[in-house]
Amino acid sequence: MGHAVGDVLGLAAGVAVSPLPIVAVILILATPRGRLNGALFGLGWLVGLAALGAIMLAVGGSGGASHKQPATWVGALKLALGLLLALLGARQWRHRPTDPSQAQLPKWMAAIDHFNPPKIFGLGLALSAANAKNAPLTLAAGASISAAGIPVAQQAGALAVFVLVASVGVLAPLVVYLLMGERAQRVLGSWRDWAARHNAAVMAVLFFVLGLKLLGDGIGILAP
Length: 224
Fold this sequence. Notes:
It is a single chain. The chain is built from nine helices and no strands. By secondary structure, the chain is mostly helical. Helix 2 (19-29) runs antiparallel to helix 9 (184-222).
């Protein structure tokens, strides 16, 4: 299990650094029902990552590992996901704003204060499991855990560690809000402004670096 956790920590860190979801949760905390909405968003985020990882574990089973070598399909999957992330990184970098102060947030964020609780939960679910960066990284983590050839209980434990580490970025504003109350507004406001300005550049670098990591992992598994 320790080897499986070690394999997915880097991927979890990549998921944790998610500027737009962090901006979203900060905006949610500023709504009239911020405490409830923030908790629902965090729950949706956790459920999304856990469900996607569990699906990958169910599909992969033991991963077909033999002689401590991951199955060929794991290498092929990582190769494909790595190529996808690298291409997305190049695209994100080309389309980043030349002036970070001119960065535009998605239009749906302006309506967050009108979202009802089910929609807030669904937003957390979507930004974790249906995110262009997070979904490939979570699938890759599930494949790595599956390929470790460990019992189901240990697979579940490794996935739980991945989900918790991957949720640090989104849950941190909620923890600050719960601990500091109204005093958290200035801290969270500075986090929000920084994440909004640098989202494109941060995402481009993460896409590219993590894509190269998965490409390397895939080549290492498939190479004779």
